[in-house]
Here is the input.
Amino acid sequence: MKIILKEDVNNLGHKNDVLVVKDGYARNFLIPKKKAVVATPSVLKAHEEVLKQRQHKEAKLREDAEAVVKKLEGLKVVVGAKTSSTGKIFGSVNNIQIAEVLEKEGIIIDRRNIKVDSDKIKELGTYEASIKVYRDIKTKIQFEVVKD
Here is the structure.
């Protein structure tokens, strides 16, 4: 079944994408949850007009995302953590703490778009995180975990 997504759906596509999915997935999940509509000829025609109007907005968003990536490339991120006398961290460092540090630097990124490459950070040191800035614009940053 041919559909048009009304919002971003993980592992499927982004808002306004025209996709072909299995009938059951569309009828039982996407359409009842109002995540998609059936792509009839009249809906497709209206969809094309919407896409034309959004091209300028899309270009601006991409420009802003590229600017954020440039800021992130030169940024030294230091995350403080409480540690024991042996250097082990109480708890672990996660994407929420990285998002807070970035926000203090003036870069606002949703914590859900930050993926820490290591499973659990339990010791002091330097680590890497992947950040999804906008749709297909991603970057990696190095961050250092230091004693608080």
Summary: The first strand starts at residue 2 and ends at 5. Strands lie at 2-5, 18-20, 36-38, 77-81, 88-93, 114-116, 121-123, 125-134, 137-147. The chain has a mean pLDDT of 91. The first helix runs from residue 23 to 30.
